[in-house]
Design goal:
By secondary structure, this protein is α/β, with parallel strands linked by helices. Helices cover 45% and strands 17% of the residues. The longest helix is centred in the last third of the chain and has 15 residues, at 239-253. The chain starts with a strand and ends with a helix. 45% of the residues are buried. The model has no long low-confidence stretch (mean pLDDT 96).
Length: 291
């Protein structure tokens, strides 16, 4: 049955893929985007209704939510999450939206040292108080992280994760979960889903799989937090993001990001993509990235 669905953050990593899937499945998709660019033009060409607005502005979110059956909400690691969440909750209630799929993170908890992770936990509790049915997604680190942090010139992954482990998850697999829940939210109402890829690995093992897929040596170099802080500041990362990444690096070492499960297949319908396959499929991005 065709549904009217809103994707907030529709030009982002998970939002764009979820919007693609929903359009392919014949749903009417409204995409709330911060600015019009080639990414929103691509979605418009696929049939999405593009609405330009700001999730920090209640009126623009309310306009986007008019006539919507269910919505997906994701917000980047930057300041403003609590205001954005309150606006989404209010706009959804005003427009009698049936369900919200909320992108949280696996490190979200009350006692989190990361400001962003702690805010995600509070944002979940805020949405839980809404009359709208809510499903929270808590993914581990995305496989995309490998592209963002791989230094192509040296073949190094310089990261502060020691010998901690996680099962990297692709955005495309998360999108399948998001789309499925939006299509039929009732079985998932009130649930919190930790999302993992198919295989738990440390970064030495991840580097081995990257080496095989790329046909060149990739080396994981464990670094300390102060060096990683310098790396992030050298890239111009804002302080909110730096504080988050340094705090979750400690979480990672302590096993918060570890584990795996079958939720991607059980909800999304297909086996999740492993690291080697992801790297092979995204070879061009790795080849062009220098970190």
């Amino acid at each position: 049955m065709e549904r009217n669905l809103l994707v907030i953050g529709a030009t982002g990593k998970t939002g764009s893929r979820a919007a693609d899937l929903l359009l392919q499945r014949g749903h009417h998709v409204r995409a709330l985007v911060h600015r019009a660019d080639e990414r929103s033009e691509r979605l418009a060409a696929l049939g999405a209704d593009i609405v330009q607005g700001d999730v920090l502005d209640l009126d623009s979110v309310a306009r986007a939510a008019k006539g919507i059956d269910a919505l997906y909400f994701t917000y980047p690691i930057r300041t403003g999450l609590m205001d954005a969440t309150a606006n989404v909750a209010q706009a959804a209630e005003e427009n009698e939206v049936q369900a919200i799929v909320n992108m949280s993170q696996i490190s979200a908890r009350r006692e989190a040292a990361s400001n962003a992770a702690r805010q995600h936990w509070v944002a979940e509790r805020l949405l839980d108080r809404s009359p709208v049915a809510v499903t929270h997604l808590r993914p581990t680190f995305f496989t995309q992280w490998l592209i963002d942090n791989w230094a192509g010139a040296t073949g190094e992954l310089r990261l502060p994760f020691a010998d901690g482990r996680h099962a990297p998850i692709a955005e495309s697999d998360q999108a399948k979960v998001i789309a499925t829940i939006l299509e039929d939210p009732s079985p998932h109402a009130g649930k919190i889903y930790p999302l993992h890829g198919p295989e738990e690995l440390d970064h030495f093992e991840i580097a081995e799989r990257m080496s095989r897929a790329l046909g060149r040596d990739v080396t994981y170099v464990p670094v300390e937090l102060d060096e990683f802080s310098d790396i992030l500041h050298g890239r111009g990362a804002p302080e909110h993001l730096v504080q988050h990444l340094l705090a979750v690096a400690i979480d990672y070492r302590n096993g918060i990001f570890a584990g795996t499960n079958d939720l991607v297949k059980r909800i999304g319908g297909t086996d999740p993509v492993d690291v080697e396959t992801f790297v092979a499929l995204n070879r061009a991005s790795f080849d062009s990235h220098t970190a």
